Structures are given as C-alpha cells and as structure tokens.
Amino acid sequence: MFRRSFTFLVGAALAGAGLTAAPASADERVLNVVAPWQVTSLDPADTGYIAARMGIAETIIGVEPDGKLVGLVASGWTLDDDRLTWRFPVRAGLRFHDGTPVTPADMIAAIERARASGETLAAVPIASISAEGSTMVLKTTTPFAPLPAFLTDYAAIVLAPSARGADGKIAAWIGTGPYRVTAIDGDRSVDVAAFDRGGAMPAVRRARYHAVPQGETRASMVEAGDADVAYTLLPAAVPRINAGSRAKVQSITIPRARVMPLNVGLPIFADLRVRQAINLGIDRAGIAAAVLRHPPSAATQLLPPILADWHNPALPPYARDVARARTLLAEAGWKPGEGGVLHKDGAPLRFTILVLANRPELPPMAAAMQAQLRELGIDMQIRTGPGSIVPQAQRDGTFQAGLVGRTYVNVPDPIATILPDFTRDKTVWAQSGWINAEIRALVPEYIASFDDARRAALRKRITEILHAELPVIPVSWFEHTVAVSTRVKPVPIDPYEQRYLIDRMAWAN
Amino acid sequence: MGQLIGALAARLAQLVAMLLAVVLLCFAAMQALPGDKAVQLAVARHGERAGEDGIARASRDGGFDRPVAAQFADWAGQVLRLDLGHSLVSRRPVVDELWPRLRVTLIAGGLSVLLGVLVGVPLGAWAGLRPGGVVDGAVAVAAALFSAVPAFLLGLLLVMLFAIRLGWLPAAGGGTALHWVLPICTLAVGFAAPLARVTRQAVVEAWGAFPVTFGRLKGLSPVRAGLRHGVRNAAIPVVMLTGLRFAAVIEGFAVIETLFNLPGLGDLLVRALVSRDIPTVQAAALLFGLLYGVVGLVLDAACAAIDPRRRLRVHPA
Description:
The complex is a heterodimer of chains A (509) and B (317). With 509 residues, chain A is α+β, with helices and mostly antiparallel strands. Chain A has three domains: 1-32 and 181-246 and 486-509, 3-Layer(aba) Sandwich (D-Maltodextrin-Binding Protein, domain 2), CATH 3.40.190.10; 57-176, Periplasmic binding protein-like II (D-Maltodextrin-Binding Protein, domain 2, 3-Layer(aba) Sandwich); 253-479, Roll (Dipeptide-binding Protein, domain 3), CATH 3.10.105. Chain A is 29% helix and 22% strand. Chain A has a ten-stranded mixed β-sheet with strand order 8-9-10-1-11-19-12-18-16-17, sandwiched between helices. Chain A has a four-stranded antiparallel β-sheet with strand order 4-5-7-6. In chain A, a hairpin with a 5-residue loop joins β13 and β14 (342-344). In chain A, α14 (437-448) packs antiparallel against α15 (452-469). The longest helix of chain A has 18 residues, at 452-469. Chain A starts with a helix and ends in a 24-residue tail after the last strand. Chain B is an all-alpha fold. Chain B folds into two domains: 2-80; 98-275, MetI-like fold (Orthogonal Bundle). Helix content of chain B is 78%, strand content 0%. Chain B has helices at 2-32, 37-46, 52-62, 68-80, 94-129, 134-148, 151-165, 181-207, 210-217, 222-229, 231-250, 254-259, 265-274, 278-306, 308-314. The longest helix of chain B is centred in the middle third of the chain and has 36 residues, at 94-129. Chain B starts with a helix and ends with a helix.
C-alpha cells in the first residue's frame, strides 16, 4: 500500500521529466535477470553472449547443460566420407523474429562475420562455405573434428538480414530464439517477450535483462527482491542472501579456472622445480574455503570434473606440501638469504604477479598466495590493475606471472582454449615462453582425429603434460553462483554459460 | 546596453578560450596516459577473449598507429564540423552515447539540488534566526553528521533500510519512478547538510548587519526588516554554493551511479577512460567545459541580479 502510494506520488513528480516507464499489466509478470555484463555494443563479437543467454538469438549448434551438442538454427549435422565436408540443414520452418524465413545464407553470413572479428572461429581452416538448397555446406582444408563445438561460439549467432544497419553493421538483435527484443535501454537493460515459434509458449512470457556491473549492487537487488535471477555473486554476499527470505543461491562448479600463468622464459620459472614448488606451496583448499567460500572450487587439476571428457581422474591431485616444496627449491639451488627470501647466485627468488582487479576475488586470493609462498622464502610482489594489465605486459615483454580467470569453454571443447594458450609462441592471457613439442603435435592431431578412442587417449596425454609441466598453475575452478527469487521455481543452470534457459523457467505460483 | 553586450562578448570569448584549452589538455592527457591503448580497447570490447586479432583491430579502429598530430587534426576537424565521432567501444555516435546519460545526470543532479535547497535552506535559515537555540544545535549536529558521512556509505545505509529491510523502494536499477528516489535522496542529503550550515551562517551575519538593524530602528518588525534588508545579502553564498553544486553534479557522481546502477555521465566517463575510448572522453570533456562555462555565466548573472554592487564592481562607470 505504501509502495503504491509512494509510486504514485513520485511518479507524478517525475512523469514530466519522462523518467517513468509504462506500468506493467498485472497478468504480464516480468522476470528480472541481473548480471554484470553491460550491452556495450550490439556487435555479436562483443556482446553476442547476452543475446544468446537471453534466448534472443541462437547459434548454429548449441550445447545442453549435460554437454551434449544439439542443433539450434541447424537441425543437426552430417560429415561426408572425405572428413572435410560438413552439412548443416536449416531447422524446418525456422523464422526470424521479423517473420522472414532462415536460409543457409544467414548461417554463412554469421560464420563469415564471426571469422572477420578474429575470434574463435578464425581457428577453423575453412576452404569454402556454400548453400545447397536448405543446407549449408562447409568444407575445411584439413579434418577438423571439433567443428560443431566451434559453431556454438556466440560471435556467430545467426541474425536476420534486417538486423544490419545502413552501414552493414549489426544494429539490432533480430534472431530466432524463444524471446524477441522489445526494447533496449542504452547499455543497461534489454526487454524481451516470448516469441511464438509454433510450439508451446514458455511459462515466462516477459523478461528484462539488467546489466549491473557492481557485485554489491547485484546482491542488494537480490536481497531487496528486485531481481528474480541474479548471476555471478560475490562470495561474501552468498550467506547474506541465503539468510534472507527473498532468494536462495544455487551454485555449481563450471569449466572456468583461476590460474596463475607464468613466463617460463624467465630463468626462475624455466626451472620446473621452482614451478612445482610454487604449485606445492599454494593452499588451494584454504583459499577456496576462506576467500571463495566454496570448497569444491579448490582446483586439483586444470579442468574440473564437469568436463567429464577432459577431467583426468588418474592425475595426482594438487595439494599443499610445504616440506616437498622446500626440498625442490633446495635441489634447484635456492638458499636462505636476506629477509627470509631464498637467493641463488646473489639474486632473490622474487617475481611480480599481475592481478586483475575487475574480478574482486582475485586480489584477496593473491594476498593469500603471497603469504603462503612467503613461508617457502618466495617473495611474490602483487600488482593489481585493469583487465588489460596481463595482455599489455605480455606484449611489452614485462610479464612475469599473472592471476587471471580463464574459460575453457568458449566453445564446449576446451581444445579451443588449449590451442591458443599452449601451442603458440605468443599468447595473450596464458603462459609465456613455454614450448612443448609434444603438446604442439598432440593438439593438431586431436583436432584432426575422428576416432573416439584415439581422441580420448590424446586428451589424457595433453592433460598429463599440462599437469606435470605447469606452464600455468591452476588455483581454483569457478563457482557459478545464481541467486533465485522465491517467486521462481529452481532454475536450470547451464555450466557452459551459453544460455540462461529462461524458456525452461517457471513462476513458483 | 553597450556595456552589457561587451561584457557578454568578453565572457563568451573566455568560454571559447576555455573550451580550446580543454580540448588541447584533454587530447594531451589521453596521449600521456600509460599503457597500450589498443590492448585496453580490445579488452574493453572482448574481455578475456581479447586476442591478437582483436588488439590489431582495435589499433586500426582507434587509429592508434597513426602520428599523434594526424590524430589530433582529425579530431579537431570533426569538432569544427560539430561531429564528435563514434565511440570506439559501442561504435555508436558519441552524441548518442552522451545524450541519454546527460539527461539522467541533469535530472538526477537537478532534482537532488532542488531537494537539497528545499531542505537545507529552510533548516539553515531557521537555525540562523535563532542562533544558539535548540533548532540551531540540532541542525548543527545533523549537518556535521551528514557532511561527514561519505555518499556511498549513506547510499548503502539507505538501501539497507528502505530497500532490503522495509522493502519500500528498489535497491537499484531503472524503469520506474521509485528507482530514482534513493539516489536522489542520497545526493540531496549530501548537499542539504553543507547548504544548511552556509545558510545558517549567512542568515546570522545578514540579520546582524547594519541594514537589518537600521530597519528595525526605523520601526520595522524583525521579519520585515530581515526580508527587506537581509535576504539579498544572505542569498549570495547560498546561490553560489547551489551553483557550484550543480556544476559539480554535471560531471556525474560516479560512486552513486555505480551504487544504484544509474547510467549517468560519471559512469560513462570512468568506463571510457578505462577502455581508452578517446572520442567519448574528449567529447565528454568538451561537454563538461561547455556546461561549466554556461553555469558560470548563469551564476554570475544571478549574483549580479541579487546584489547591485557586483554589477558596479564588474562594470565600473
């Protein structure tokens, strides 16, 4: 009653200023989805993930929460005997939100647009793409087994020709998903309404995406009941939200990792024993419990169990072993020196770790690691900075170590991340200076192989090498935290972060 | 009349000179900022997916590999053609980026200033009319308290009370009038507190000054004497503070915008600086300079209208 009266009074005061939105009708409840990412542009290479997650646009192929690849814009795919020619038929009767039918040319345009943006799909050795009737035919120059996985890349969401502006750039999100855009308000909100695709309509008919970069503000919105579903919450906010009555937090471990990439070209890190000592010196369980407040996030290897194909249970789990770490450092010639820091040939065991400040959990994690490594006599200096701090140091040659978040499912096959991170001389976010001939041979072989048994063996060997060689030191996996209002039934969580699956959500009453 | 036109022309010339200085300083500052602009732009666009290709594209888009003089000539030419260019992050025209945010900032800032005046001036005047009284003491304590509390802390407290605890108001976001209440109140309280103190002091001084005393000796009631001879004198510092506050809110209130997820100029400017979105930063600086100049002109005119002595000082015959 108070809120309605207050709304009226304040609404009257601000109506002249044009600040009020049209009130929603009573039977059209709006699902408020809150997430950190702003709609900085409509270019799919920048923010296509928002369009995909909100169910506005679809990729040619998608991934289910269990990891199974499924056709979205394409009804499926086939591969010719030459292992080079792929066929992707357009799903029958599929139409864009503007009513126009989807054609293979639209899929081709999406791929070409994504390749031009230089993202994941640029790695696919495409010889030609053409249309044959209602089917897109894609030929590669060499066998490329993970192609369907690569076609889940959000940069290649399929949009209608009318989505392009006069300058040829994407000016609107006119896709094929279960929701169509009804309004976009700057970079802060996107309103969507269910789109009749011929089948059963989703239970949630209207939704609004709120871009709220500040974690504390997202938490406040959940606590105040302003958000129905809120993604990516600060660890410290989770107990507070759960203690209230308006929402509960669901949490799963997803295929992202917080890793410490090293410049293996530096003399101190060129010695594997030093990398191993650092790895043994980190108390992952303590960090996961105290900083992340999610003990299952402690990384025992690079890739988490949810990536069933890539997680290797045979690997010895990473664990803290200070005595073993000290032994390794002593074997490497590091001796106690001034200030409790180990020295070798007069030089201290000291390096600077670059920490991304845009992930608020990383600086306290770095502080904990600093204290833990200090016990070994390793002086790790911390330098926090914006998201560009690591790639900038990689480019200007000053990179020593970093603490970054890295996703291994830009597409549902981690090979798309392993390829640039571990087989190239120059990387942007990963290690530097690590050249491993075996990995450089195994990765292309994996990409070219269609033999499931051989692929499994290659995955096993690749993970063994990364586990032992430590060009990057995994610290924790990511916990995907989602606060769900009591107004909404428990929601499905997509560990691949491709979709929010709003069309599968339902109101609690 | 001639004097007035001359004064106006002089002020406009000052404004143009100031804008020119802003343009030059802003361009120089952006060039002097540390770091590789292409990397920063690519990360702003693509986050952790930014790769070598994205960095190369960002460098091309921003023209960062071109000589500085050529970059400046291009931008200056655009400004002269009243074209502020396109944002390097959103690729939209900078004007389209600035306008909605300027609207938010002006409305939220303007309403907060108005609310601050409506609260601060009466309270300060009440306290000043009875110095040493109960109201004066209470206003002094409240003003000191709210002047000392940082805006973000006050905002958090208001969110906790009115959004989370009572559920009366939304915590953040937009879409309805209610979403504007907490940020405006947070800003208004932060302004009302110092304004009450200034008003109180101005009233004390004006009411104790010779003109009001003389009016009372003439037989006017204290209220009539004050209204006739004290208000103008007391109004000067209040108007000045209000004008300066309004000038300050023009450039945004980034902390409050962040806390309440309010898409204002402050948030845009911070993001543009971090991402090295040079066209947006330069256009925002130009806009701020222009608005500051206009506010300064209005403030001078208002003060001159209130106090005839200022007109005489500005234009001695």
